[in-house]
Amino acid sequence: MPLLETRDLLVSYGPKQILNGVSLGVDEGKVTTIIGHNGAGKSTLIKGVYGIARVTGGAVVFDGRDITNHAPYDNIKAGVGYLAQGGQVFADLSVEDNLKLGGYALPNDLVPERMEQAYRMFPILDRRRRSDADTLSGGERQMLALGMTLMLKPKLLLMDEPTGALAGPVIEQIMGTIRSLVEEMGVGILLVEQNVDVGVRLADAVHVVEAGKVIFSGDPQELRDPEARRRLLGLA
Amino acid sequence: METFIQISINALALGSIYALLSLGFAVIYNTVRIFHVLHGAAFLIAGYATWWLAQEQGWPIYLAASTAVILAGASGVFMELAIYRRLRVRGAGFLVSFLGSLAALFFFEGLLLTLARTATRLPRAGGPLPTLHLQSDALGIDLFIKWHSVYTIVLVAILVVVVTLFFRYTKWGRMIRAIASNPDLAVAVGINASSVYLLVFVLGSTLAGVGGVMQTYEGGVIPNVGIRLAITAAGGVIIGGIGSMPGAVVGGLALGAAQTIASYYWGGNWAIPAGFMLLLLVILFRPYGLLGTREHRELRRLL
Ligand SMILES: Nc1ncnc2c1ncn2[C@@H]1O[C@H](COP(=O)(O)OP(=O)(O)OP(=O)(O)O)[C@@H](O)[C@H]1O
Ligand SMILES: [Mg+2]
């Protein structure tokens, strides 16, 4: 049984239908990567799973339980973590306050310990505890955003473009973090990536979304080769 | 010297009340992002409740005043649930919410006019307030300071400190700052925005209520000050710098100072024009406000 399953998921914003029946799964300790053009509905898919965008049809099943349209708070409690697109942090709050808020849904007595773990994972944050988050670089911001999400020790992690707008060693570091989450802690990850190369290298399964539908599902092995990618996806 | 001290104290006392109103307005605006002119109603509720309980019902003034503040705070719950939450659910934009707020305030002022008439309502027997006589031949000082001014300044200072500590060090304070800073992310970490909004309305309205009680005790209350005080509160926020809570306090104090100085030198009729002239000058020449920074672009764009 997959850790997460979406069944014919429908999401619309007002009259505008965005997801037209998306079915996919994420297994424990595996990465499912979603690739697609801008506006294809990748973020909407993740938001629908997490309960931020209203699901109008189909179902989200996590750990064998129907969690369709459950509020984020309940999803966090159940073990679902969410990393929003674009390095979202509380810009005018300190790094420390950001981490505390990341652990908002945790029992209070767990927060200090989890914070220390986050600092150990991202030492750069440790040195900037008291700084406002908007003084961090783009990469540091993404570390903070990831640290906030990892405060919760999720079983399933929904990641919306974790390497978006980043370059170089930061990408490697984030990929390393994702690998260790998967391999050492058995986290299941639904990963949206613009960076096809990164997405494919991490993936155990790949789905391509176009206009709110899965138009291609496959084995990442087939997509390693850029030539094959172009042929199969029309993507570089 | 004497004149300077006298004006300073009067300016601080009036400015303190404006600072409370502005702080309440800022707390609500920064979080909920509505131009909450109905804020003036919390002031009126506190003022009229103090008068009615103390004068008409014969309650001891401290009991009347405390009850009035609680009523003002509770009115915040009503404003959020009966008006703003409904507007939000219907997807009302900034302007519609503002008009709804204005309509509710004018409705309330009209209601007060019908129920309590135009008379100035004072929650105490008339006559001058007790004063503190400061005299020192060495310093060449001979001053009469209203005790009420002293109480007001001290009380407001304490409240500002308490509110600051609340925001900085409590979980609820952090939740409010989180929503103000990044509402989408706040929801994503599991914060229930609706309950934070409710808290913010109670907090903001309570602050306005304290202002209402202190102001009314000294000078009484009439129905149509609601709108003017609401705009004054918003003005203080803009003068201080939108998005900055210390700015709101500074802005309120600046308005109090402008009004006091103008009325001292040119007469009482100049108080209100001077306050709004200050607001206009800040908008024209320092649109970020005195303490505002570029960080708060996002908040300013809404106004
Ligand atoms: N809150 C919203 N209200 C209305 N339309 C929206 C909303 N959010 C997204 N959309 C629309 O839904 C469509 C899909 O958006 P989505 O954010 O899911 O795309 P995406 O695949 O994540 O794109 P990107 O790669 O640019 O992040 C877009 O056309 C977008 O304009
Ligand atoms: Mg997206």
Concise summary:
The complex is a heterodimer of chains A (236) and B (303). Chain A is α/β, with parallel strands linked by helices.
Describe this structure in words.
The complex is a heterodimer of chains A (236) and B (303). Chain A has a single domain, classed as 3-Layer(aba) Sandwich (Rossmann fold), CATH 3.40.50.300. Chain A is built from 10 helices and 10 strands. The model of chain A has no long low-confidence stretch (mean pLDDT 93). The longest helix of chain A has 17 residues. Chain A is of the alpha/beta class. Chain A is 37% helix and 26% strand. The two termini of chain A are 33 Å apart. Chain B has one domain. Chain B is built from 12 helices and 2 strands; from the N terminus they run ααααββαααααααα. The N and C termini of chain B lie far apart (41 Å). The model of chain B has no long low-confidence stretch (mean pLDDT 94). At the A-B interface, helix 2 and helix 3 of A face helix 6 and helix 7 of B. The complex binds adenosine-5'-triphosphate and magnesium ion (MG). The site of magnesium ion has 4 residues of chain A, from helix 1.
Topology record:
The complex is a heterodimer of chains A (236) and B (303).
Chain A: E1 4-13, E2 16-26, E3 31-35, H1 42-50, E4 55-62, E5 65-66, H2 72-78, E6 80-83, H3 95-102, H4 111-121, H5 123-126, H6 138-150, E7 156-160, H7 169-185, E8 188-192, H8 196-202, E9 205-210, E10 213-218, H9 220-223, H10 226-233
Chain B: H1 2-32, H2 39-56, H3 61-89, H4 94-116, E1 131-136, E2 141-146, H5 147-169, H6 171-181, H7 183-188, H8 193-219, H9 225-240, H10 245-266, H11 271-285, H12 297-302
Antiparallel strand pairs in B: 1-2
The structure holds adenosine-5'-triphosphate and magnesium ion (MG).
Magnesium ion (MG) binds next to helix 1 of chain A.
